[in-house]
Queue: 4 jobs
Job 1
Amino acid sequence: MGWTLQLMRILIETSQATFSRAGEAVFEPIDLSVAGGRALVVRGANGAGKTTLLRLLAGILRPSAGQVKRHAPVAFLGHLAAFKGELSCRENLDFRRRFSGTGSGMSNSRALARVGLAGLGLRPARTLSAGQKRRLGLAGLLVAPAAVWLLDEPYASLDDDGCTLVDTLLADQIGRDGSVILSTHQRQPELEASPEVLVVQRHAQGG
Amino acid sequence: MLSSMNALLRRDLRLAVRHGGESLMPLIFLFAVIILVPLGVGPGPNLLASIAPGMVWVAALLASLLALEQLFRPDLEDGTLEQWWIGPGSPAALVVTRLFSHWLITGVPVIVFAPLAAEMLYLPDSALPTLMLSLLIGTPILSLVGGLASALTLGTNRGSVLLSILVFPMVVPVLIFATGGVAAAAEGLSASAHMGLLTALLILAVTLVPLATTAALRLNIE
Amino acid sequence: MIFHRLKVGFHRLGSPPTFHKLCRVLSPWLWAGFLVCAAIGLYQALYVVPPDYQQGDSYRILFIHVPAAWQAMAGYVIMAILAVIALVWRIRTVEIMTMAAAPVGAAFTALCLATGSLWGKPMWGTWWAWDARLTSMLVLLFIYLGIMGLYAAFEDRRKGARVACILVLVGLVNIPLIHFSVEWWTTLHQGATIRLLGESRMHPSMLPPLVWMTVGVKLMFGAALLDRARNDLIDQDRRKNWIRQLVDEPATGDNA
């Protein structure tokens, strides 16, 4: 994997970046930079703009002011796991792998086993429970590896086992000198080195 | 980027096959029109022959309209659409891929069965090659223009009414050149001017529509 | 350099209070100008110009029909220019102006179609004919309606305006194509009789009222555009501070 060589390099950074919706900035301008091997936890009240920030970092949204620079491939896992319910888990993972154009990811069965979905490869994705869908989303990160993971509420709908799984996957990603930026308001990730924390401030209305 | 386009095309076609019945809708539509029209206007061969190009074309247009509502919406709702802006593929290339699969699903069946429809409406044999050529050049324009309208209305919740209002003005030139050409060929005249103009429209649509569609999609996912 | 100045100018206009003030100052003047031009134009059109030797008095509707038709098309061009500015520089007030232009343009298109139809009944013996100009005007009306409908369908009006601006530009490419294709399709309408260069085939006395009416209609378009834009802006910003200040100002002035 090419990016493992770029030790401790900044993989993603912003300067005074913000996003406007209906002409109003969603959150106060944000400066951040995350290096390989580091994690960043995004916190903030409901509606403060955590999801918006992650979508901005992913490149789905364009900053209305400031800059976002991505120096490495990015993967984004949001509330919507981006899977087709009519297709089987395997087919969905195959698509993810081909779509991202990376050849270095895990095989389907290994990834499914890793997230605790072993044996469910042929099931249509729509028949999975909410928690299983989240797990399938995590498997998507494994089959199509990216240096930067942007995870929006990765612990949502997961049981205790699942939350531990997320922590392990995060540790692995950091161990590969990848970066992780995640938003969460329930559980805090349990990692060896405690991650940096960024608090998103909702933009003051007015004017 | 090619790998992304390839993956998207394969998945779209796989989904179309899996939906089965829905994918047959364009054909059912074509033949519903072809069968209902003689019942409505009478079975006179001369009358049918004179309206045949228009009927086949209107059927092709309606067939392409059918699937437009679902062109981008499911992808918006399950989060796959926003992934277009993350992966290595350029969004415009993915838009082109999606429109190509729309054409394969709605345009190609109509083209394949057009000779049968033309025969049922007594279109003169001399006009058949022109009809086929006009469909071959024109139906991709329908997919392109329809895709643009679909992208524009994506963020609204009453897309389907708007969709028809937006598509209708855009397809006027296509319909005129295509049916005009077929009618000319039926009278034994040359249709090359019509087909040339239709080709010009296709080139224009291929260059401009992906850009506008990408911009519209982008605004709608924000 | 000029480009930069334009940009700065438009950005200054982009401040809602400034824009609001400009509209409020400018629009009464435009309405007044329209009334004067229309009064002169209509007087000349109805009393000064002699009746046509073929069409009698019925041709006089031309003095409304033709300016409305021109404005329907000119309105689209203005709207398209505004749309480019709105999309390139992302200026909210210009987006609002673009969207305000659509209903006004649609109204002129409808007026043109209605007067054309009224004129067509005595002249051609039919309310409607599938002729090139009529058909392309009808399609133009639908394009206007599509733009209005698209803008109205969005909950986030800023987003709606930006998406509709894209449609405005698509229409700009599309309208000449429609016009050309429809013209190719059939022609029954009389050819263009007014030429900027070369000899006009109209009676010379018809020209002054036509010019007055045309100028009047343009001023009215501008006035209606500014009024609509101002109303839309106030409606969108009704909870914002600057509106509150605007409403409060006269009241506090009275108290002092």
Job 2
Amino acid sequence: MSVQTGSNNAPESALGRYYNYAYLDEQTKRMIRRAILKALAIPGYQVPFGSREMPVPYGWGTGGIQLTAAIIGPDDVYKCIDQGADDTTNAVSIRQFFAKVADVETTEDTGAATIIQSRHRVPEKPLKAGQVMVLQVPQPEPLRYLEPRETETRAMHAYEEYGLQYVSLYESVSRFGRIASGANHPVMVEERYLMAPSPIPKFDNPKLGYSEAIYLLGAGREKRIYAVPPYTRVRSLDFEDHPFEVQTWEESCALCGAKDAYLDEVVLDDQGAKMFVCSDSHHCAERRAAGHAGPMAGHQLDQTEKEAAQ
Amino acid sequence: MNAAAKMTAAPAERGTLLRVDGLTKWYGHVLGCRDVSFEMRPGEVLGIVGESGSGKTTLLNCISGRLAPSSGSIAFDTSRFGMADIYALSEPDRRRMQREDWGFVHQNPRDGLRMRVSGGANVAEPMMNLGSRHYGRMRQATIDWLERVELDTRRIDDRPANFSGGMQQRIQVARNLIHEPRLVFMDEPTGGLDVSVQARLLDLLRELVRDLSLAVIIVTHDMAVARLMADRLMVMKGGQVVETGLTDQVLDDPQHPYTQILVSSVLQI
């Protein structure tokens, strides 16, 4: 973690750079750091901040990029994933961006990274103290769908009026017979603030609670930063007679055989053939390297991935 | 819900439920309503009648805590804080009191319902706002209330937009009564409905009000609605109350010239 590392500590090689260190100017980074500190002090509270124009469109992770830019330092090791995978376009682009503007080492290894930026997933490997998880958030306000007025949702947060959020759960149960939300399942942080955990699958919700690592969440377009500090209570909303449950699969990962990982369904042809694979590509690769094998180990897809890795 | 228990409990607490004193509302230099004072007891139905622009809705919004008056006070016998000036309560306390003790039936059901969620969820929402976290119990209460307002319980999961205007208004009524409020505000509850639907809704409202011994403040420009629903009437003109009294007394023997015109303007078939 390098929150304290400013440009003063930047290496000599950075002096001749075209961009300011980590792209944003120093005043902007200070402003974002102040927002981060406030967010950490009030877990789950959405801190407004002066979101900047970034060199990518809104919706591509501008909130997360600004958070990372504000906390990253030259001795950080940076990992960026999209849908759990290290090799998707958005993840590769953002990783290259920070390799270029912040002179940081990048990695795909969850354990080696100090800053992990992500949309949609929290890595399978438990995060450790000293790691920062940066999540990109499209809509930070969990009540927005039901209450369009910002003045009203602010009052609802201030006065802890969270009954309305249960209306969405009621709808889900009445329509599907269970709480059917897949991602962005709302959570209560320290039994005080209702929080949208970004579009991570609810499979990942339990990882937020009592984590050793820091979770920072940033919404660039909506101009909000919020955070879950380490060892914070995070409770996913549910009904007494419909308790919160995470997704489970009857299948195991076709490549590495993992039974307890979040799996993606991949359609293989137009004959109905499909496979389930770990969404966390590094987790899967690590397991395969350790000798675990799933029912389709050695499949063509497995081969191409190995070649790409070399 | 538990009508019998409520009715037996009612006589013991026959105090003043609501006391409005010198209520005045100015919109800049335009008068909303001026110097309105009255008292209400539990189980009483008060009708506010008058022409368009006479200040009925301004008065209702002021009393229901939705519009701060320019001067005057509104005291309500809250279940949590006892008799209290509603604008002297802190905002979270006032909002909580509004959730717990009051209901508000809008003229247009679209103002009172969440159109993006099902009718059943709309009816159950006040229970969730008051802390109910048991789906099965809320579901059952919702079904009971849909029966009470004579809606097809099989349509519980339809969106409000898929119901007719009269049905939407019934959903709104159920939504505002499910948490057993002590006072319900109604702003032209039969306004946009055709006469036959209007008559059935009025019939239903009257039955529920009597069963639950609800206190109701009903704003209407329809004399027939006032006659059918209200125990007492307040006639407003130009922001002021010009006449007040028992409904039958006011309608059968109007004293103020405006009331006389109002009563004589009712179309006869």
Job 3
Amino acid sequence: MSDTLTAPRPAAPLGDLGVMVRRATTLTIRNGDALITSLALPIMLMLLFVYLFGGAIQTGTAYVTYVVPGVIMLCASFGASLTAVVVTHDMTNGIMDRFRSMDVRGAAVLGGHVVASTARNLVSTLLVLGVAFLIGFRPSASFVDWLAAAGLLLVAIVALSWASAAVGLLAKTPEAAGGFTFFVMFLPYPSSAFVPVDTMPAWIHGFADNQPFTPLIEALRGFLLGTPVGDSAWVALAWCTGILAISVAATGRLFKRRTA
Amino acid sequence: MPGEPAIEATGLTKSYGSVPVLNGISLHVPPGSVFSLLGPNGAGKTTTVRILTTLTSPDAGSARVAGHDVERDRGLVRRSISLTGQDTALDEVQTGAENLLMMGRLCRLSRRAATRRAAELLEQFDLREAGARRISTYSGGMRRRLDLAASLIVRPAVIFLDEPTTGLDPRSRAAMWTVITDLARSGVTIFLTTQYLEEADKLADRIALVDGGRIVAEGTATQLKQQVSGHRLDLTLTDRAAFDALAAGLRDRALLPDRERLSLSVATDGTAGHVRALLDTLDPARTAVTRFAVHSATLDDVFLALTGHATATPDKERAGV
């Protein structure tokens, strides 16, 4: 052993985050099943809605155009929720203890997963958009609209990924964390993602109008299709910031509790 | 810092909920020695390691590792130690070399230095060929070796090994022992937990027997064996009545009583005179004992004599207790 290796290591949180992003990305790419599911599922759902259900749904525009913002959100939320599974995995298989004993901050490990999740989701969003274009999606967005849509989506993905990381810290087993992805996948249905809310039974309007996915999808729709955005972008942004703030605070506390 | 102990713990206690796990553990480990915490599942070994490696806080008591307080100077302790836990702390889908490179980077080595160090360690731990393969293809023994290698990227002052050979086949266990012996020879302090008496006997300079969150005895293997008589007399009785009568008469002196098999043991110095005298005292009518056998004392006997039960109990400690 060379003697330089005995030098004490100064704390380097940013360097650690870089290593952890790289690690999480490698894990994502090599967990073939999860990757294929998170990329293929949204596309299959979109084809399902456009070709099987779309003919029966009246939204006032070409259904593919109506549904794409919803599919993008569904894709993002499902993709982000997979973070819960990898975080629980890290917490239960001993590697988190090794990282902590090496003086790596828990936030760096979780941050690595969130960054990798965000990158994976942006790729799957691009794939969904690509297929959408092929089957007739014709947005009327200007460059600035695209930027606004991308920015909002980015904030949403980061917020949902942190929320998933918090769930991952809460879950006792990766299987339990997997159940969360299921819940998140269903949340966009009672929103304006696939059908207009006013076609739903009245008792569900309260929930559908006021859950975070509706303003998110309405804002995306507004940016991409030129429908009125109204205050939905701000409401959506408020939701995302709120979720992000609560999630970051929650992960800090949960991590401490879990490692007590 | 010369003269300072590598590990010093005083009165560590810890409960999980209402379940007490540690009931006042005190330790003193001189630098450069191999110290083993020996005990059955659930004795508190892993919890002790977790406290000494700053992963969990004691309810009471204090500990210093490599001269730093485990509560106040967590960062300094963490930079002085390495931990190899019971679970393989590696990424299954990364290769051996990639895992080591990642750990090297987390030890703040440059990419080049980390790559070079990974290659060295793979060579040293006889994993050069396996370095390019994913961990998911490794055998249990290879995982443990790589796991240990991953904790040696930067030379630590104190190495913690939590049950390094649990679940390994005899050949892999022997290979791990060689690796640990080599490490000990390099002068590093090693803190080892095990439920195998043979392992502690073979590797450790000093052994602490731990049971129910307490240290019940401490010393070298030889000193501990001297705490019980040098030998053990195993007796087989004729029937239940004879067994019950003898067990009742011996009380605490009866070791390993087994009512089903009608067998129990007593301590002896192993000389013919003592064995003869014992047999005469225990079975004056010469009808109760059918067979006897004399064994040299093992650490097992020490454990039994001190705790009243054997080390290997089919229990689970993996939950982190």
Job 4
Amino acid sequence: MNANSSEIPMVQLLTVDGDFIEPKEHAVYGDIVRQLREADFLKFYRDMARIRRFDEEATALQRQGQMGLWVSAIGQEAAQIGSGYGVGPNDHIFPSYREHGVAITHGVDLMSIIKTFRGVNHGGWNPKENRFHLYAIVLGTQVLHATGYAMGINFEGLVGTGDPEKDLAVITYFGDGATAEGDVSEAFLFAATNNTPQVFFCQNNQWAISSPVGTQTKVPLYKRGEGFGVPGIRVDGNDVLACYAVTKKNMDDARNGKGPSLIEALTYRIGAHTTSDDPSKYRDPAEVAEWAAKDPLIRFERFLRKQGIGQDFFDEVKIAGDALAADLREKTFAMPEPPMELMFDHVYSEPHPLIEEQRAWLQGYEESLDGHDPISNGEETPRYGGTH
Amino acid sequence: MSNFAELSIAKAINAGIRKSMQDNSKVLVFGEDVAQLGGVFRVTEGLLDEFGSKRVFNSPIAESGIIGTAIGLAMRGFRPIAEIQFDGFIYPAFDQIVSQLAKLTNRSEGYFDMPVVVRVPYGGGIGAVEHHSESPEAYFAHTAGLRVVSPSNANDAYWMIQQAIESRDPVLFFEPKRRYWQKGQVNLDHAPMSLHTAATVRQGSDVTIATYGPMVVTALQAAENAAAEGINIEVIDIRSMSPIDFGHIVESVKRTGRLIVTHEASTFVSISSEIAAKIAELCFYHLEAPVIRVGGFDVPYPAAKLEELFLPDADRLMEAVDRVLAY
């Protein structure tokens, strides 16, 4: 049995045709979904559509030279929006770098994400206020930070008090590729031995740049935590209701003191790893087509239509998407260059002799040029590939 | 009147940590074998009994995990003191230190402080097996965002560990392991100076020797030997390898005109390389001789029976003194 075998049981609540199926072995997930109202379903769909439109527009902006790089999450919207809404409002989220969908469920301004990939700053959102931490580029590093954070919650006694206002949990996101990093295994160990209030959410999108998941693992990834004492479950990552229900259940359990758990969301990276990648060199188009047919948005749209949601709603979402894209373009074109200070600020928490010396030197040097760029001889050089 | 106590460096660090833990309930101690055993050098002995297992606990043997979880704890508002058991065991944590710990305050634009102290017993001279005698400080001094210090005596050990714990930035705290049992008077009431200030530990007029950590005692021995020959050596304990208190060294070199920089670490791209370059720039017209570096050779730390040949000693420093005086 390979790591992605279809024989592996997984929690699925929606068929590809959009029919709700009662989970035989896990009735609790059905119960969680039955507590949702129509407004919740519409919110899930709106956000999945919003993040896809955002993603498509960001890819276009990168192609126009407006961003150094774009990291597409197309195909993973259900895993991200579903799990994101399964996280409690006071819980903390430690993302990797592809979690744009999770970000919007916790109020992160999408322009902050554009800034990161345009090269303006390293995120810039307030991770304390959003409880959505900065993107982590080195794979798996954030998983240990999440575990340390959850250890701290334990030490403060904010687990299993029974007071929903007090109890906290942490969720950390990583991909199938990151599971090969030692930091992820070490995090499983620290989490298990400390019984941390924590969910490990692995989006298995099946490709780590050009390496299929079989390069990273011989066993299904949801089993990766078992040897450390972290039980796992696999969920259909293209089923927004299943991702929501399983995440909510596991986060509730974590908050109640039942310890860490691992969720593997089986999904698919429809696009390239990043805009620098060319998946046609290593991927069978038939495989992409097979997964495109399981598109999480189409599946949920079918569900909603069967619930009686009319065309007006989908038209409204489409119009909102176009407005979002226009706004994104406008704000990206208008985005100012970062100030020089950004490089020198906050390297240390107080003024540092070497850095202050270098800051002052650069300031003086720039002023000495009197606005003339010695390389371009005063002509303005666009930073990103020509005029817009 | 201040209260004094005679303590070894190991006991002084222990007392400093205890004081910080009493003053601030957010201070935690963890690492390999730090709890019941008190660490392999007993630096954390007795802390478990006094502060309990939520504040003093053993970690799995996973250095990246130790630093990675320390970062998460710091994000939550704790002030972790993470022990790396030996210098040569810090490398599994290298990414978490240089790419995460060092950069998080900057990349978060100041939303997070990183008040983490990484304690590292370092250096040779104890006849240890491989990977137990290294001096990796230059790797960390090279990384923006970290502070790197090393005490050379009990009084500094007591105060510098407390100052490191109070720092809002990460501090690599290198403890000179072959001097752990060296005793000294500790002023329990007044810190001698701030964390990153250099100290003149012997005044002289002919040659300046700048050093830190375990080599301060060696430099003082060399200075005594030289005095018998009528050579007057000034010894500076730089105490902080990042940032470096260059002003203090410059003031001395302007008087002596000659500088030797010494440490146990290999000299190639080392702390002494940086000091030599900077002093050449700042004291060009005052130097009577080139700045000479005296350090370990640029080879892997050798087997214990060869370490006396590897480590700079008072005689090797005297040889360097002869060389700078020959100009």
